[in-house]
Write a structure and sequence with these properties.
The chain has a single domain (9-266), classed as NADP-dependent oxidoreductase domain (TIM Barrel). Helices cover 40% and strands 15% of the residues. It has helices spanning 32-43, 58-72, 92-106, 123-136, 150-159, 178-186, 206-215, 219-229, 241-248, 257-264; strands at residues 9-11, 17-19, 23-24, 48-50, 80-85, 111-116, 140-146, 166-170, 190-194, 233-234. It has an eight-stranded parallel sheet with strand order 3-4-5-6-7-8-9-10. A two-stranded antiparallel ribbon has the order 1-2. The protein is globular and about 55 Å long. It starts with 8 loop residues before the first strand and ends in a 17-residue tail after the last helix. Keywords: NADP, Oxidoreductase.
């Protein structure tokens, strides 16, 4: 991973460029705080915003995007906007309808990335056919999945015409998902991290604190830099402008090979979110 700037991108299997670092808005309530957060992120150079139908904040994200574009002079084409179809809408027609609903709430003409949020039972196969339809129609620039284990990906790819371009999963130093990452790399599927900071649970870890001290950085910056050096796109969530700037200040240093390995060794296969094999709603 050679990203040197916040604007740097990875290239997905279909040639679409996706920023390495973005803003996540999970559990951010729709309203003024969210609108201001999206505007601040875009103002500070963020070009990727990640939301989902179940977050119930697509409207605020869309408003923040429109106001930011107006104020900064940036263009819609510079942005990379992601949303996700929720479990109750996993079916061919239901997924197509859910996509249109998300688009309407966001006030956008297209999405850059649309994901199946969870691999619920057999339902995700029909939903994937809908994503393929949207992609072929040019309504979305890239399609992918979220929270898929290897066996889910294998099952999906047996019937899929188009392979997922992204798999967004829980990923942090306590859950390094090495086998999944190797599988995704083998199949040109870009891995993306949600909850990269393990909801703040790692900020006092002595190994991370020592590395942070060495680089004169925060533990959060060390973890996000580790993500990028592992080739994993990351979308830390925050509504605080100062934290956004801090999260983006990770392009002026690099972890050594030894430091990356030290962080790798913190893995315990421990989740803060549900296990995709046991999560339906």
């Amino acid at each position: 991973m050679t990203a040197k700037h916040l604007a740097d991108t990875t290239i997905l299997a279909n040639g679409v460029q996706m920023p390495w670092l973005g803003l996540g808005v999970f559990k951010v309530e729709d309203g003024p705080e969210l609108v201001q957060a999206v505007k601040a992120a875009i103002r500070h150079g963020y070009r990727s915003i990640d939301t989902a139908a179940i977050y119930e904040n697509e409207q605020g994200v869309g408003q923040g995007i429109r106001e930011a574009l107006q104020e900064t002079g940036a263009s819609r084409e510079e942005l990379f906007v992601t949303s996700k179809v929720w479990n109750t809408d996993l079916g061919y027609d239901a997924t197509l309808a859910a996509y249109e609903a998300s688009l309407n709430k966001l006030g956008l003409e297209y999405l850059d990335l649309y994901l199946i949020h969870w691999p619920v039972a057999e339902k995700y196969k029909e939903a994937w056919k809908a994503l393929e339809t949207l992609y072929k129609a040019g309504k979305v620039r890239a399609i992918g999945v979220s929270n898929f284990h290897i066996h889910h990906l294998e099952e999906l790819m047996k019937e899929a015409e188009i392979k997922p371009m992204v798999n967004q999963v829980e990923y942090h130093p306590r859950l390094t998902q090495q086998k999944l990452q190797a599988f995704c790399e083998e199949h040109s599927i870009q891995l993306e991290a949600w909850s990269p900071l393990m909801q703040g649970q790692l900020l006092n870890h002595p190994v991370l604190q020592e590395i942070a001290k060495h680089h004169n950085k925060t533990v959060a910056q060390i973890i996000l830099r580790w993500d990028l050096q592992k080739g994993v796109v990351t979308i830390p969530k925050t509504t605080k402008e100062q934290r956004m700037m801090e999260n983006a200040s990770i392009f002026d240093f690099a972890l050594t090979k030894e430091e990356v390995e030290q962080i790798d060794r913190l893995n315990q296969n421990r989740r803060v979110g549900p296990d995709p094999d046991n999560f339906d709603f």
